[in-house]
Amino acid sequence: MTFLAQDHAQSSRPAPLVAQIRAYLLRHSSAVFSLKTFAAAMLALLIGLWLDLPRPYWAMATVYITSQPLSAATLSKSTYRVGGTVLGALAALLLVPVFADAPELLCLAVALWVGLCLYLSLLDKTPRSYLFMLAGYTAAIIGFPVVSTPELIFDTALARVEEISLGIICACLVSIIILPRLVGPAVAQAVENWLKDARQLAQDVLAGHELDQDMKDKRLRLAGDAIEIDTLADHLAYDFIASRAAVEALRIIRAHMLMLLPLSSSITDRVAALGPGWRDDYPDMARLVDQTGTWIMQETLAREPADVIRAEIAAQMPALDSGTAWREIIRTSLLMRLRELVDVSQDCRTLVEHIANNDPSPVTLRFEPDLGAAHVRYRDHGMAIWSAAGAVLAVLVCCTAWIATAWADGATAAMMAAVGCSLYAAQDDPVPRIRGFAIWALVGMLIVAVYKFMILPVVPSFPLLALVLAPPFLIFGWLIARPSTTSIGISLGSNVATLLALQSVYDPDFAAFLNAALSFNFGMIVAVLVTLLTRSVGAEWSARRLMRIGWTALATAAERRGMRDRAQFAGLMLNRIGQLAPRLAAIPQSDLHSVDSLAELRVGLNIVDLRRARWGMDRATRRAIDDLLDTFAREFRRRRGVALAPELLERIDHALGKSLALPEGRVRHDALIGLVGMRRGLFPHAAAYAPEIAKVMP
Predict the structure, then answer these.
(1) Which of 121, 413, 421, 695 is the Cys-Cys partner for 129 at CB 3.0 to 4.6 Å?
(2) For residue 378, what pLDDT is reported?
């Protein structure tokens, strides 16, 4: 199925030869990308030499830093690289003249700027984070080399902006004009694969499969995949073919995706709560569940069967009162969740077919999501501050060595410390990535030495220069195009282009090259050591921290008395679970795998349901709900993995008894959904709810 930002609206199928060519290019997309990137790099270098820019090689290096296999991703990264370069240049223009007579203060100011920008970058979980990160170390790249000649700061900053902009323009033009790869189809395929896996999970749930470790891992993988889709989808706005309607439709689908996982988790729990013999006890509901499972996996929209399912759900909904047995309450909760699952699933298919048919008419949805929830991301201020402090310290260590030894090329060390600490700060343990970057940069230096002192002296013209540079740089581009080697390719491509220092006049100064290489490696070594001592943590430490933060978030949700934020809370919690997924995958033997993170997400959503319901309750029922939420908040603020207090279960049962006496309507619906979900999520093995016991609690 074609979906989102199709290549061009076509009235007929492409000719067989055209289709064969497209298929061939797709199979060899890495080679095509490498050729395009090398062509853009040579164009940038040629124009830079023609314009007599001070460092035309920066334009060439920028192409290898910016270029991405998807054209929209290149445009996105290029836009933020220009913004980050300009912002970093402005910071250097401000700081260098002010602290020109105090190098120590200038080093401190630049280091703090690097730290501030890195902090902002880590809080922004979108491609825009690249702007802040680049603004930080660009100020170091521009400012440190002119410490002894501050009068050159404006010319240096202007040249840097010109060279970076030239490389970006060349990279974007080549990416768009020559065999562009659109991000729309890639996003579409990712979304369709995700929905297919989510539907399969829902069918497994409806078929009564037990919640084993494999199912837990599958749900975690889906949460992690949702974050990757978010990152990819953020580039869609830069796809020059994608329409505004396509971007909006994707936002709606992503908001729906947030609810599918907690819904399937709730249904799993309710089926388990009914017990092994529920199919014999409730044959009509068993048939309904099977019918829903079959409908979930159908490839067509099937509107009429969906309406039939909704009507059957409404027909089987029990009438509840204050004396209703626990099993009937569970059955009611299951039917409510089943109806929500049908609504969300049908909406997703409606949206997919709506866009596939290029239908501009408004979409009628059964489930109205909070569109802002699709963009909610978890921000870890503590880790961001910690990482920023490490970058500041690494830069200051290099600056101290630079000033103390009067090292002529010490600025390079400080610059590379800023770069090394910034590039991989989002990792739990950045050390392996920084070390890998440095090792491949060292390999690049060996390549540079061969070219600079053996090959380039005998190259008489630019065409021949391009010819001799082609072998290694085509390999670098091919490495960038492959996800498993992207960082290797970027390290080799950017560093080799920079250290070659191709200019109009050839200057084979071996001493200067060796000094720059030593300073480069010293900066990376400092970045590794400082990060190892101050910032490096393991995946298990981060996973446990994320869980503790989740408990605090649940307590905060219970303490508030507001409403209208159910979808946003789901987005935030699911985003956090998505970040937890790869960390748990890295620690397969940890006891953390036994924790059902989606159960805690369900509890959080149940709390929001209760907060919404309490506004329409009588005073006595509202007081019972408030007492429950206050007790819950106290328990989770002091929780350290120990068992919850029995008082919390008593509060839940008391509030449940009060809510069952409410008149039929939306308020009772929300209250029952919330209370049943909390009871099952927090006390899955507790004895069944007993109305006569719940009434005696004051």
Answers:
(1) 121
(2) 67
Phi/psi-derived region of residue 3, left when phi > 0, alpha when psi is between -120 and 50, beta in every other case: beta
Q: Alpha carbon of 274 to those of 45, 261, 659, 689: distances in Å?
A: 70, 20, 21, 13
Give long-range contacts, CB 8 A cutoff, 24+ apart: 513-516: 513/448, 513/449, 513/452, 515/408, 515/409, 516/409, 516/412
* CA 65 – CA 128 distance, rounded (Å): 16
As given in the structure block, the two tokens for residue 262 are 């907690």
Question: For the chain, how many residues are written?
Answer: 698
Nearest Cα to Cα of residue 584 among 550, 551, 552, 544: 544
134 and 119 in contact (C-beta within 8 Å)? no
> To the nearest 5 percent, what fractions of the chain are helix, strand and coil?
75, 0, 25
Give the CA diameter of the chain: 96
Closest CA to 361 of 245, 265, 443, 450: 245
How many Å apart are CA 202 and CA 218, to the nearest integer? 11
For residues 681 and 314, is the Cβ–Cβ distance under 8 A?
Answer: no
**CA terminus-to-terminus distance, the chain:** 59
Residue 206's nearest CA partner among 119, 287, 144 is 287
Quick check: 59 and 172 in contact, CB under 8 A? no
**Helix H or strand E segment including 447:** helix 431-450
- The pair of structure tokens assigned to 98 is 């002010």
Cβ-Cβ contacts under 8 Å for 457 (sequence gap 6 or more):
506, 508
Specify the pLDDT at position 418.
Answer: 92
Angle at 13 between CA 12 and CA 18, to 5 degrees: 125
CA-to-CA separations, 2 to 186, 188, 302, 540, 571, in angstroms, rounded: 10, 8, 19, 40, 27
- The pair of structure tokens assigned to 603 is 């509890």
Q: Which residues of the chain have pLDDT under 70?
A: 1-27, 184, 210-213, 227, 231-248, 258, 299-304, 354-362, 368-378, 536-540, 561-598, 639-643, 691-698
